[in-house]
Fold these 2 entries.
Entry 1:
Amino acid sequence: MADDSKVSNVGGRYALALFDLASDEKQVTAVEADLKSLKTALADSQDLRVLVHSPAFSAEDKAKGLAAIATKAKFASTTKKFLGLLAANRRTALLASVITSYEDLSAKARGAVSAQVTTAVPLSAAQSKGVAAALRQALGKDPEIQTRVDPAILGGIKVQVGSRLFDASLKSKLDSLKFALKRA
């Protein structure tokens, strides 16, 4: 059973329950793959985001929509049942939180740590390897890196590991310089 002493949000509790069930059924990696594809679908589809978040849809409608997606994507039975439970309990708005928490639980079980890396431009393969090596050395664990491009940071890099944020972006440096100049 997973350690639930640090799970304080509702999405995290649902993720913990799903992780425990998937562990019992030996489907942790299958469920994680399903959730990652669902995370991508949520990011790409405005219609799916509306379905998940809008109170205009009933729990039954949300359950039917999520079931159709799960069937079309050939999700594991555990994932399908879980999505139905989320809809029945009117918790579909927590789906993104559940997915993130599940990924963290799964990474922790594998002895890895997930890291969100944000850069202004896409990283090359060599740069990605360098970031992974630096994180491995700093954290003492193998990082599972998810990259994101955000031109608003102007340059540099932001790395979030759990609740820790390492911000070496040009935007944050300019903001701190601006603040220092205003104080002077």
Entry 2:
Amino acid sequence: MSEEDFPTGSGAPAALERRLERALGRQIKRIRRSQDLSVADLAKTAGISVGMLSKIENGQISPSLTTIAALAGAVNVPISSLFAASEERGDCSYVAARKGLIIERRGSKSGHVYELLGHALRGDIVMEPYFITLREGAQSFTGFQHAGIEFIYMLSGRVGYRHGDQVYELGPGDSLMFDSRAAHGPDQLIEVPMTYLSIIVYSRESS
């Protein structure tokens, strides 16, 4: 997805990462090193080439079940343990108070400040949480458009928030969830400064 396709830049990658292959490769490498085996040692015992093992450990290829079984046998572990990192790992993104990344987005030039509160995690679904501030002198901006669903929760101030041809007056505690492919954004800045949470959710396959 290009910026021209979705002007707000909330773009999902064009293709999914090879998450399973990379997790499998990392686990094989970890077990090999824990047993003090070189790449050549493990490749020889498993009956595969050094080049193939290197590609497997780097997540560059999808090994066959026969190859996976051979690797598991070579390091004397159950096949299931080679997938443990992929199955059991829980991703987590921690951001301390006022330490979110300030980023430039459409609307920044209108006085809108975007603080990213989390980083993209693995999986087919991406979530981008933002803490947004509109300060004194900020301007209305209703030209946001991007893939996915957006959820807004007002923390302070009051705003007339436009989605398509409708305007919703939001104050502290109010929320709004909408299809973000339609044009949207703060239309009437009723009480500034204002702050709100904006959470954008979209598929990595969006284009």
